[in-house]
Amino acid sequence: MADSKQMARQSIDSFNRGALDEWAKTVADDAELVTPMAGTIKGREAIKGYFQQMRQTFPDAHIDVHDVIAEGNTVVVEYTFTGTHKGPMRTATGDTIPPTNKTLSGPALDIGVMDDKGQLKSLHQYFDTARGLQQLGLMPAPAVTSRA
Questions:
Q1: Is 4-131 in CATH node 3.40.50.150?
Q2: Distances (CA, A) of 122 to 5, 116, 126, 142
Q3: The whole model's pTM is what?
Q4: Which of 56, 59, 75, 81 is deepest in the core (most CB within 10 A)?
Q5: Domain locations in the chain as residue ranges
């Protein structure tokens, strides 16, 4: 089996370069993506489509890796996602949010599981959608309360 840390770093490099056709070759046909922005997506082509849409929404999208931890066929990547909202953003409800031209930057965590052939079988993403929506001006920041 391929080294899962190396595969994760190569996948992120492909994403950062916008080389999604190259990235998709590392994904199993029946892979599953679970992400806060779209729920559960099944299948290589559907997952690739999600990331293509993300690159259209945030054409300058970039992932800065902070840590990669692997155990067996599971890899965890802690990173910061940064991108400028220049294209339409589709929500999990099917709504489309027009570009705000504001920059979003925030911490995230991915947990990936590789199959026996070294292909990505499962990817679960965790990030603070409220914080991102606040940065884009699409959601108010929480009110500050003071304690007496």
A1: no
A2: 15, 12, 13, 33
A3: 0.89
A4: 75
A5: 4-131
